[in-house]
Design a protein that fits this description.
The structure holds 2 protein chains of 2 kinds. Chain A contains 9 helices and 13 strands. Chain A is α/β, with parallel strands linked by helices. Chain A has a 7-stranded antiparallel sheet, sandwiched between helices. Chain A has a 4-stranded parallel sheet with strand order 1-3-5-6, covered by helices on one side. In chain A, strands 2-4 form a two-stranded parallel ribbon. In chain A, strand 10 and strand 11 (258-262) form a beta hairpin. In chain A, helix 6 packs antiparallel against helix 9. The longest helix of chain A is centred in the middle third of the chain and has 22 residues, at 115-136. Chain B has 7 helices and 8 strands. In chain B, strand 3 (85-89), helix 4 and strand 4 (109-113) form a beta-alpha-beta unit. In chain B, helix 5 (127-139) packs across helix 7 (155-167). Chain B has helices at residues 8-16, 26-41, 61-77, 93-106, 127-139, 144-151, 155-167; strands spanning 3-7, 48-52, 85-89, 109-113, 119-123, 141-142, 171-174, 177-180. Classes of the chains: A alpha/beta, B alpha/beta. Chain A binds chain B through residues 115, 118-119, 122-123, 126, 142, 144-146, 148-149, 152-153, 156, 159-160, 231-233, 235-236, 238-239, 242, and chain B through 18, 20, 22, 24-28, 57-62, 65-66, 69-70, 93-95, 98, 101-102, 105-106.
């Protein structure tokens, strides 16, 4: 028996929850078909989260690729199928792979498992990011350093804490759904141990009665606590949050059954959501919007 | 006074055997710091070493924490009568905020020669420490008694503040008073 999970037509960090909700109702050993035939658009978060999701399943799942040529072609240019081919049985018309860099964005889906990968990611994106941040987002050139720092720290989270590799993707696009402005989105997803287990492994759980994924996320993301007792550790999230506050950006971190968000004024997300459908690992989203004169 | 310069970008390239000039990731920072520590150990007692960041491109918190903060913690924990002094150069506007944040997190401070050549004290310092440091810098060398009037507090208080700066290796203690690491007339 194969259970079919329908992927929404527009796949982002919010709608990906629908995928997880469908999955949560199934036995863990169920054969899964992820049906993305009618998916017309995916954010970098959607693509990287789909890859991480496949890693969490006991049996290799099937994936029906988008029927729309534009969509499947973009997923191909974004290198999604390059990695999805190893994790999913792909069904449908998979466009031939294209050379890296043809996605027209900033960084195609890229695996991250070692420190060297973080260097590679930042170097590949450095020049393009500088142009897009200053020309498309109209931010000052000093915003480029914080962008690189945020990307690096987000990727290092996988290397330092996940216990297994993950993926990063960066894209700039017009975010019509919420504000009609250009945004740059960084998505970093893994299916590793997750934040709660990471803190527990270093005996860094705070002394409180309540302890769940939401509390663990607040401890790590808001209070800057890491599994390492060293006072210099755990400052990456603090740095990312400070950078995003300055440029009105958004940070969302999901782990286990909860997500916490630094909500900028232009967004209507909520600061914390608990009791979500479970997903192992940590999934992180950064959005930096185009600056507009008020 | 012996002055010695360490090009942090050259150290980076040699320590991690790569061609890039970005200070990224904790393991990279650790490798760079270990090499800087070895080079500092070879510098003569009391010498001033300039750590030159001018060829560094991108930087992140984790790497800055290793290269800047942990190096300073190590120096602060050394016997205050021994060891050398470190001055940072080439920390651009882009890096400054990040470095300051790392320093503040550890309660540390450093002397930095800015792009315009002016020395600055950055990081976690009290108002009295900053004021005393500025006075020593403008004098080049000063004893507590010389600064007490201008400071508006007694000589003992000024001596205490200067001692604290000396322990933090932000000024040098000499036979005639406290010396600036980078006096206005010695900036290269």
């Amino acid at each position: 028996m194969t259970a079919v999970i329908t992927v929404p037509t527009s796949l982002d960090d919010q709608t990906f929850e629908q995928v997880l909700e469908q999955l949560a109702q199934l036995p863990s050993d169920e054969k899964i078909l992820i049906d993305a035939r009618y998916t017309a658009w995916s954010s970098p978060y959607g693509l990287t989260a789909l890859l991480a999701l496949a890693q969490t399943l006991s049996e290799k799942p099937m994936l029906r690729v988008p029927e729309k040529d534009d969509t499947s072609s973009y997923w191909s240019r974004a290198n999604f199928f390059k990695y999805a081919g190893e994790l999913y049985e792909l069904h449908g018309n998979v466009p031939p792979s294209r050379p890296a860099g043809e996605a027209g964005g900033l960084l195609e889906v890229t695996p991250v498992s070692r420190s060297d990968d973080v260097h590679t990611v930042v170097e590949r994106i450095e020049k393009k990011a500088a142009a897009i941040i200053t020309q498309n987002l109209h931010l000052e050139s000093r915003a480029v350093m914080g962008f690189a720092m945020s990307l690096s720290e987000a990727c290092q989270n996988i290397v330092e804490h996940a216990g297994r590799g993950g993926w990063v993707a960066v894209q700039n696009y017009n975010y019509r759904k919420r504000m009609g402005r250009h945004v740059v989105q960084i998505a970093v997803c893994d299916a590793g141990v997750g934040i709660r287990q990471s803190l527990e492994s270093g005996n860094r759980r705070p002394l409180s009665d309540r302890w769940d994924d939401g509390q663990a996320l607040e401890t790590a993301v808001i209070q800057g606590t890491s599994r390492f007792p060293d006072p210099g550790r755990g400052q990456g999230f603090k740095g990312i949050r400070g950078y995003l506050r300055k440029w009105e950006g958004k940070l969302m971190v999901r782990s286990g059954t909860a997500r916490v968000t630094e909500v900028p004024v232009w967004d209507d997300d909520v600061a914390r959501r608990d009791r979500l459908a479970p997903m192992p690992g940590t999934q992180l989203l950064i959005m930096i919007p185009e600056k507009v004169d008020r | 006074m012996v002055r010695h310069t360490i090009d942090v970008c050259a150290v980076l390239r040699s320590a991690v055997n790569q061609t890039y000039g970005n200070l990224l990731t904790r393991p990279t920072g650790m490798a760079v710091r270990h090499q800087i520590e070895r080079e500092l150990a070879a510098v003569r007692e009391g010498g001033i070493t300039s750590l030159d960041f001018s060829s560094i491109g991108m930087m992140d918190y984790s790497c800055a924490d290793e290269v800047v903060a942990k190096l300073l913690v190590l120096l602060e924990n050394e016997d205050p009568t021994r060891g050398g002094f470190v001055v940072f150069r080439g920390i651009g506007e882009d890096h400054l905020e990040l470095v300051e944040s790392v320093l503040t997190n550890h309660g540390l401070a450093l002397v930095c020669v800015c792009e315009d050549g002016s020395p600055q004290l950055i990081g976690a310092v009290s108002t009295a420490e900053r004021r005393a440091w500025e006075m020593v810098r403008s004098h080049g060398c000063a004893a507590p008694a010389e600064l007490a009037d201008a400071f508006g507090f007694g000589e003992d208080f000024v001596a205490e503040v200067l001692d604290a700066l000396s322990r933090r290796r932000l000024v040098r203690r000499g036979s005639g008073g406290y010396l600036a690491l980078v006096a206005a007339d010695t900036v290269q």
